[in-house]
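Course assignment 3, question 2. Fill in each field.
Student: A.L.
Task: Predict the tertiary structure for the chain below.
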Amino acid sequence: VAGMIALTRKTHLVDELKNADMLVDNLSRRAAALPGTTAEYVHMLGMITKPIMDAKLSMKDLEDLTVNAVVAAKAFGIAGDVAARDVDQALRGQYHSVDPFAGKVLGSIGYAGEVGRRKYNQMTAEKRASEFKRGLLQPQIAELGEAQGKGFKGVLSTLQDAWQRFMGAVTKPVFEHLIEVIKAMNAWLDVNKKTVEELAASIGGVLL
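Answer field:
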């Protein structure tokens, strides 16, 4: 995500890492009251960051559109990958009124059928982004998310999310230590490259 933001904005990766971390933290916080886990929201974020940034929308827009895209996709019974593809294509002017996700979002604000498709696709990139944002940020979608978050699946996903965060916190030190061990091994192999090659040749000769 940070890399895509940096590429689009022509900024440095290290600067955008903070923005990406902030986005993930915000998504995690919001996921607690909505259907779906943090992982699902972060997955959607990764898929729509490039088209959203290309459309010159703000970081807040990116966060809000990510949340509502997941909420709406779940409400419509559409896979997250499919929804993300529709967002990408619509923002690039390749919207079709039969698209499973974009068709419902844009159709609900007047871009239904062939006439609606043509009208939407002929807009400027900025206007397409503005209209898609208007469709996806309708209050009805926010209400759907609130209602789903209070249901059994919503509560269950919150529990699952909490468990995933717990396991991540528990295993993080282990992976961090493992990374340091691997780095040390690589460094040793670089320093002792000649010795390793000689040893490999010797062992290979014995095996043959």
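Instructor remarks: Residues 152-191 form the longest helix (40 residues). DSSP finds eleven helices and no strands in the chain.
Grade: pending
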